[in-house]
Design goal:
By secondary structure, this protein is an alpha/beta fold. It is 53% helix and 14% strand. It contains 20 helices and 15 strands. Helix 11 packs across helix 19 and helix 19 packs antiparallel against helix 20. Bound molecules: beta-D-glucopyranose. Beta-D-glucopyranose binds next to loops. InterPro entries: Bact_solute-bd_prot1, SBP. One of its GO terms (cellular component) is periplasmic space. This is Probable sugar-binding periplasmic protein.
Length: 418
């Protein structure tokens, strides 16, 4: 459905080329993104400064909304009206979907000059390249199977990072009895999906995760193992406070930072909020893998693609892509953002302990085929099934549905979406 709609508006986009080319002569790069939280905005400033250092101007087009749902909707509308931004933050399968409709700039000239083929891990390149051509520049690697914990609360209650899901449940009980919210959560579909990434991995491990959420194998989707993932979701639902519906992810992080809540299950952009508030890992907060997911690295990577608008826009877009991939920019950006560089040659110096752990874990996971794409952030399955699974997960989390029924809905929803 998505492709048909995009094809239908292609005529409008072609009509825009002459007008857009004139605007692009100024080498101002309009960048659309959804980095509007405190930590995200600080990290974004590194990219802005990097582009300015190349002599180009940055036109900022922020679209608030964690996970990028709102930004994707705005992008569709702007493409439909023939007025896409020059560059846009994109996740996973969205990149090949736009590239296959011939909307994205070919970045091969910059990529080969700067040797991106050798610098970027294969699972990331899978989304940056389409039919062997670079169409997006990856700036970071985020990981979703993290728990962020308030160290003061953990110390007070003599808790250590739980190794199994049952231990997490037992800890949550102690935390609630001591008067804290065990789990800070924002009730938005993408945040529930983010937790589901970890629950599926914990219940079944990397092979099962791939079979179910990447290959969409009905027997894995409908299995008892998948029921266990929903059981974990049900237990986690019992750990949140009554005000969770609609809460933004960074407000949930703030509950952990301020000691109202003990833990948050979230990608490491949450670490950007701790850093922005002046908090230190192992002093103020703890970072550990969601129980049962040691060795697995569930990734999402923020990439920037440039939209075709006539050749005149290319110098600005090339300069932007080159900024994104700059070694120094990736070091500085990722230390603030909470993620790790998409380039493998950036040294660990300057990264905190959580960042170093992530860099080491990613390298280990690459060797064991345990670096898998995040379902929640569009790196496991295309948008059609992804949205269908979002609905199943969020309905389950916000109702009393049984795990057995959720699994049946999951199989049906994936089947209908294909
Ligand atoms: C992006 C992150 C971003 C997070 C919250 C994710 O989809 O990959 O860069 O910080 O959403 O907005």
């Amino acid at each position: 459905m998505f492709r048909k709609r995009i094809t239908a508006v292609a005529v409008g986009l072609v009509a825009c080329h002459a007008l857009c080319a004139a605007a692009a002569d100024t080498k101002t790069v309009e960048v659309m993104h959804w980095w509007t939280s405190g930590g995200e905005a600080k990290a974004l400033a590194v990219l802005k400064d990097g582009l300015k250092a190349k002599g180009d101007a940055w036109k900022d087009s922020p679209i608030a909304g964690g996970g990028g749902e709102a930004a994707r909707t705005v992008l569709k509308a702007r493409v439909a009206s023939g007025n896409p931004p020059d560059a846009i933050q994109m996740l996973g399968f969205t990149i090949p979907e736009y590239a296959q409709e011939d909307y994205l700039q070919n970045l091969d000239a910059v990529a080969s000059k700067e040797d991106w083929d050798k610098l970027v891990p294969a699972p990331i390149q899978k989304f940056s390249k389409v039919d062997g051509h670079w169409v997006a520049a990856p700036v970071d690697v985020h990981r979703t199977n993290w728990v962020w914990a308030n160290k003061k609360i953990f110390d007070q209650l003599k808790l250590t990072p739980p190794k199994t899901f049952d231990e997490l449940v037992a800890d949550a009980d102690k935390i609630r009895k001591a008067g804290y919210v065990p789990l800070a959560h924002g009730g938005q579909a993408w945040q529930e999906a983010t937790i589901f990434d970890s629950a599926v991995m914990s219940a079944g491990g990397p092979k099962f995760y791939q079979q179910a959420l990447v290959k969409l194998d009905p027997s894995a989707l409908g299995s008892k193992t998948m029921e266990k993932a929903f059981d974990q979701m049900r237990a986690l639902r019992g750990m949140v406070d009554p005000n969770f519906p609609g809460r933004d992810w960074n407000l949930a992080t703030s509950m952990v930072i301020t000691g109202k809540a003990a833990m948050q299950i979230m990608g490491d952009w949450a670490k950007g909020e701790f850093a922005s508030a002046g908090k230190q890992p192992n002093v103020d907060y703890l970072c550990f893998n969601y129980p049962g997911t040691d060795g697995a690295f569930i990734f999402n990577t923020d990439q920037f693609a440039g939209f075709k608008k006539g050749d005149a826009s290319l110098p600005g877009e090339y300069a932007f892509a080159s900024t994104i991939m700059d070694k120094g920019v990736q070091a500085k950006f990722n230390q603030i953002k909470g993620s790790i560089p998409a380039r493998l040659d950036v040294p660990q110096d300057g990264f905190d302990e959580c960042g170093k752990k992530s860099m080491n874990d990613m390298r280990a996971a690459l060797k064991t085929d345990s670096m898998v794409g995040s379902f929640a952030h569009g790196h496991a399955m295309p948008d059609g099934p992804k949205n269908a699974v979002y609905d199943v997960v969020t309905h389950f989390f916000n109702s009393n549905q049984s795990s057995a029924d959720a699994v049946k809905s999951l199989v049906a929803a994936v089947k209908n979406s294909q």
